[in-house]
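Following up on my earlier thread - several people asked me to post the actual chain instead of describing it. Fair enough. Here it is, all 248 residues.
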Amino acid sequence: MDMPTILLVDDTKLLLEIEKSFLENSPVRVLTAMNGEEALKIVNSERPDLVILDQNMPVMNGVTCCAAIRRDPDLKKIPVLMISSAISREDREMYRRVGCSGFLAKPLERQSFLKEVRTFLPAVERREPRVPCQTAVRMEIAGSSFAGTSENISLKGMFVSTACQVTVDAQVVLRFRLPDTDDASWIRVKGRVAWINPERQLTNRLLPPGVGVEFVEIVGEGLPILRKTELYEFIESRRRKGVGIAPA
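Reply from S.P.:
Thanks for posting it. Predicted structure:
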């Protein structure tokens, strides 16, 4: 199963980075462009599943770009979200007239952004399904290294069985390889401790003592997109085999 593709279009690099960060742990492939003309070339070559356009851009603005997408019989079904600093009644009418599928006002807020994106790509979920995943994990916390074993994993986090003592919100780096995959590359994840399952008073008795880690950034050997795709494919493979467990 291929990951859905989202094209982000904005002439401000900072805003592109903010939008990319909103999608960091979602099972999507992200492309970027800095004006409507560049976006049209990418839409023609890549056929993304969703285009998110800024209205005010040089060379070609968002409205003109959206109208061009809608005029092309091969592209017209691709959903287009418009982003603008101000959305008046007249603006909304203009966006509908050129065929925008929806619109968002700046400044962007993560939850409203993701809620709108989920309208078109349900794979961008609030809560990711976990699957069993038993593999050795190296944890780095405040310069110290600890051993652990993962119990389950999702695109947004992992539960690690470990005896190390940590606190909630501690910054952690995890390093592991996925089992039953041909790629021997290490996945390296920057994260935070979201919850603790203490040995003396287990919060979740179905799990051993350890920590739940929320993924902040998936990196690793080679290109980060390859590690992210590898993780996505591992989870989907486990789910198709019916070995998934309840959502995290």
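The two ends are 22 Å apart (CA to CA). That should answer part of your original question.
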